[in-house]
Amino acid sequence: TQLIQKAITSGFFPNAARLQRSGDSYRTVKNSQTVHIHPSSCLFEINPRWVIYYELVLTSKEFMRNVMPLQPEWLVEVAPHYHNKKDLDTLGTNKKMPKAQGAAAEKAPPG
């Protein structure tokens, strides 16, 4: 499963987003756009700390569709020309997340 997730990450590395401290939205890594997991996603209430998405859909909010959880180090591994560890660390990968989100949620299946 992890190899498949890394392969997907290598194709969609520009579409990475990180859960905000509030736990109710994400921020895209490169352009700091606020986005949300689409309500039809199986990850909607799980909120993994880091995700890759296929597309953004604008309705009442900017929603990510076809979302998959990922490990942030995969971004540096598969796209070192685009992502670097320093930038990801700056985003606060080690900060505490709201309860039942972040690390515990990262074990969820893609959706």
Structural class: alpha+beta
Rounded mean pLDDT is: 86
Strand content: 25-35%
Order of helices and strands: HEEEEEHH
Spans where pLDDT lies below 50 across 5 or more residues: none
Could you describe the largest sheet, including whether it forms a barrel? 5 strands, mixed, barrel
In quaternary terms, these chains amount to: single chain
Shape assignment: globular
The radius of gyration over CA amounts to 13 Å
- Counted by DSSP, the helix tally is 3
Helix content: 10-25%
| First-residue to last-residue Cα separation | 13 Å
> How many β-strand runs?
5
Number of individual domains: 1
Strand order of the largest sheet: 1-2-3-5-4
Structure write-up:
By secondary structure, this protein is of the alpha+beta class. The chain has one domain. It has helices spanning 2-12, 72-78, 85-90, and strands at 16-19, 26-28, 34-37, 50-58, 62-69. Strand 4 and strand 5 form a beta hairpin. The protein starts with a helix and ends in a 21-residue tail after the last helix. Residues 87-111 are annotated as: Disordered.
